[in-house]
Specification:
Helix content of chain B: under 10%
Number of strands of chain A: 11
Order of helices and strands of chain B: EEEEEEEEEEEE
Largest sheet of chain A: 7 strands, mixed
Strand content of chain B: over 45%
Helix content of chain A: under 10%
Number of helices of chain A: 0
Largest sheet of chain B: 6 strands, mixed
Radius of gyration of chain A: 13 Å
Largest interface: A-B, 21 and 21 residues
Order of helices and strands of chain A: EEEEEEEEEEE
Distance between the termini of chain A: 36 Å
Number of strands of chain B: 12
Distance between the termini of chain B: 41 Å
Shape of chain A: globular
Structural class of chain A: mainly beta
Number of helices of chain B: 0
Oligomer: heterodimer
Radius of gyration of chain B: 13 Å
Strand content of chain A: over 45%
Structural class of chain B: mainly beta
Chain lengths: 113, 112
Amino acid sequence: DAGVIQSPRHEVTEMGQEVTLRCKPISGHDYLFWYRQTMMRGLELLIYFNNNVPIDDSGMPEDRFSAKMPNASFSTLKIQPSEPRDSAVYFCASGLSSYNEQFFGPGTRLTVL
Amino acid sequence: GNSVTQMEGPVTLSEEAFLTINCTYTATGYPSLFWYVQYPGEGLQLLLKATKADDKGSNKGFEATYRKETTSFHLEKGSVQVSDSAVYFCALTTDSWGKFQFGAGTQVVVTP
């Protein structure tokens, strides 16, 4: 299995631009998680989905952030407009309900100038 | 609510030294406990887990025992290698499936 795939691996953009991060979970997994990692705040859960339905988005920092999962093999996290404080590494993770473990992707390092 | 507290890093050790990273937790119900490892530039990987009291998780020479009486899940390795340099995260979940609560992470640096 290819594992969780994220793209792009690195993104540099200017303040005010729209940013879209992409994730392909492991085939057959029914849970998908988006995390943000920074030095100051550590690893934060932003949102998670079960069977493509958002279950808990209480970690989404503000309305500029949105996430979708149109099908079982694809999810996006969008920031519009982006701000310098959004600079972080964003991880996607997937899991299977019958096996309580999360598998993480390699992350997208976002830099907003 | 649930929380995980782990010792602050960085922890700097010489090769072949003994490593302990302390982790304590507060949780409602009966949590499952995990240690994840993050190597530079990579995502988190599951290192070991324990799902009930007195269980011992082990992998790659690392061990951790689920201690309900002290609400702890300390990670240990008897002889570290340079390749063990990474950030280690303690985590728990109390849902049959759902949110994980991660600790802040402990950076371990092993020198030759």
